[in-house]
Amino acid sequence: MHELRRNNRRYMPALDGLRAIAVLAVIAYHLNLGWAQGGFLGVGIFFVLSGYLVTDLLLATRQQRGAIDLYTFWVHRVRRLVPAILVMLLFSVAWLTIFDPARLTKLRGDIWSTFVYGNNWYLIFHNVSYFDSFGSPSPYLHLWSLAVEGQFYLMWPVLLMIGLKLAPRRGQLLLGISAAAAASALAMAWLYEPGTDPSRVYYGTDTRVFALLIGASLAVVWPSRRLAANTAHKAGLSLDLIGALGLSAMLYMIVKVSEYDDFLYQGGFVLLSIVSALTIAALAHPASRLSKLLSWGPLVWIGKRSYGIYLWHYPVIILTNPEVNTSGFDGTRAMLQVTASVLLAALSWRYIEQPIQRGCLSQLWRKLREQPNCWQRLSWKHWSVSACCVLLLALFYVGMSGRSLVDAAQAQSEESAANKRIVITHDNLGAASKAHQTEHTGSHVVKDTTPKKPKRSDAASDPIKKPGSPSADDPLESSSTAKGGGQPKSKQTQQPNQPSHTDRASDKKQNWSISAIGDSVMLDVAPYLSKQLPGTVVDAKIGRQMSAASDIIQGLKQNGKLGRYVIIALGTNGIFGEKQLNKLIESLSDVEHIIFVNTRMPEKWEGKVNALLAKTAAAHSNITLVDWYNATEDHDDYFEPDGTHLVPKGAKAYAALVADAVRSLSEVKKEQPARQPGSEHSSGKESVTPPPSGKTPATKHS
């Protein structure tokens, strides 16, 4: 039953049910649940809802009072939005001040920009990716969407007033709003560059406002105050059909669409907004039976608190995830994180949001003015709350105070490292050993998803260290599987007459004809790889993506330094396409063998990179896949706190894994002429077992 409220506006509980679906999708995405790879689309649903409800309110107010009351509208928006976000910021900054002040140093810009509702543009200007970030992501990354909505709430009432003056007829107004929405959608398609990080168009007010405007267009043609329950039966069935199709399309996109699908930025977000608007139209109508379904009590309860849940869930997830996690998804931790988020949002709704919306602050101020000495009669509860507020403000002040000289020096060091490139041969290992640099940790990064890892026994299947083998800590003595690390032995090519460790020691006296192209992870590995395989030329640079490999290979060719074996260890910094990878392989047609090394990183494109590398390697006889991903399962001790870059132990294990793959290939090449036609190695093809597909392992990720 739809109850009536002031201004002749109906309360529509089904829209709260839709809010619940949207916020749950966002939470699933931030928990890295594989079945909700499009969960971030929940924000787009929120945008359409906000555009519809705000415009519906403004038009209803104008109809009743003859004009839009800007002051009242803005005051109500401030009361609704600001207190909850202030409390979340106070508590989270206090937490960081006590438990992780070093991380807080990198987050001050995110926090200050949130206060002025400019967080999205701050992230754009500082090249901060929403989808990918090395190290500990900012717990405030999700606030970009609130900045977009805040800017809309500030500007839209004024623009709507102007629009109503210039185009008083509903058709004219609808045409103007639609034209503005189309311009925004075209801006997204024009600014988007396929194959690159899409965060610019994802964050931008200019490229996302079309969703809010599509909601506003719906309010013009479908005002809630004019929708009657006594609709013909056939019309009601049509509404239910439209709503069901729209809801199904939204859920399908949440499950199937990836943040790196070009389609999404070239019309996909517009399609999401349109189907969201159709669903809202059906749910807003009192004759819709679908609205009764989404008016289910638990959904409505979550929907009413969806703003607080959205505010709290991401800081809770980020601040309670382990720094490094190679063990996979932890369901217990995820349930506790969701429970804590909902509990905090419920407390915020009960004790902060509702009282302030009802005017408790105005009443308190009036009481203090009328009775100056009333504070003397405050109860112990009031004094306790006041003391907590003072403590939170004090911790906030301490945490947000200016940066120290040490912080500035650290930031300068990170900036100077960002463009560093080192070409390493066996003659300059000293420089390589000093080359370990990590990309930006914290929120300011622009980087680029995740097979499920197979179970294995530590003793029998660990590709880094086996019973009776030398320790992986010694790069000169380490032993590991040849390729497809972490794969069951039955799925790998068996190498007859493999060299013993003493044979390998003699191998190291020779100069190998190897070129290794990589990024900052390869910088970690380079000294140990060059010791394992003398003569290796390593070309590595922080932040390098696969798109740069072709130019590197061309330069090595021109200088006569391209080896017989080429190691490609890229994918940490961004996703790439199949065509791009095939073009790279064509440029290496003259080399004897190509070795791909897949990735282990807490980034959402990890699985896509690894799956594409495995698929490509399996399709080419001259490509071997070294499976670093499976080789590092349950090896948190290999990684820096960012979960990607390597400590010496991990770098040595990586080098040993790659070196053993090269040696195994060399042995196969030596034995091939002696083999009979039709044997498994006669074609020179190395079998490659792709990493099994599955859910992304739990990571600290916006």
- What is the CA-CA span between the terminal residues? 37 Å
Compute the CA-based radius of gyration.
29 Å
Question: Percent of residues in beta strands?
Answer: under 5%
What is the strand arrangement across the widest sheet? 1-3-2-4-5-6
Question: What share of residues is helical?
Answer: 55-70%
Form type: globular
Summing up helix and strand content along with how strands pair, one would put the structural category as mainly alpha
Q: Summarize the main sheet.
A: 6 strands, mixed
Extract low-pLDDT stretches.
1-7, 403-409, 411-421, 424-506, 674-702
Determine the mean pLDDT: 79
Tell me how many strands there are.
6
Number of helix segments?
A: 28
Concise summary:
This protein has 702 residues and is mostly helical. The protein has helices at residues 13-30, 42-65, 70-99, 101-105, 108-115, 119-125, 144-166, 170-191, 199-203, 205-221, 233-256, 262-284, 290-293, 297-304, 306-320, 331-357, 360-370, 380-400, 405-417, 429-433, 458-461, 501-507, 520-532, 549-558, 578-587, 606-618, 628-631, 648-671, and strands spanning 421-424, 514-518, 537-541, 565-569, 593-597, 623-626.
